[in-house]
């Protein structure tokens, strides 16, 4: 069986220091009113953050497997502005706002065209194998600083 571009998963990418991740609202994302269930915005943002790390050259899977550490969301502040609906094409915009020794703060916005739907700030802590905060690898901090808004 021959491989085609359609066999590959969707990948977002950077435009300048901003990571862009596109998605479509499916039936499973909505409630009975056809509006995106509020917790699903967190899923959309998680996919976008994971893809942003991949695009920045950070291999979370290898870090987990070799015992380097893992990221876990420590805090989320989110404001829901407008509802997304079944069939909407959305874009999650992610930018690194702050890099600390053992965490990173990422600003994420869910957009429908030029319309802001949700605005969030997510703090991801870097943890060791005992789930305790740990300094991020130096090369990762450098990668985050290179794409940081500052």
From TrEMBL:
It comes from the Bacteria. InterPro entries: 4-hydroxybenzoyl-CoA_TE, HotDog_dom_sf, YbgC/YbaW. Keywords: Hydrolase. This is Acyl-CoA thioesterase. It holds the Pfam family 4HBT_2. It comes from Sphingomonas caseinilyticus. Belongs to the 4-hydroxybenzoyl-CoA thioesterase family. The keyword Hydrolase applies.
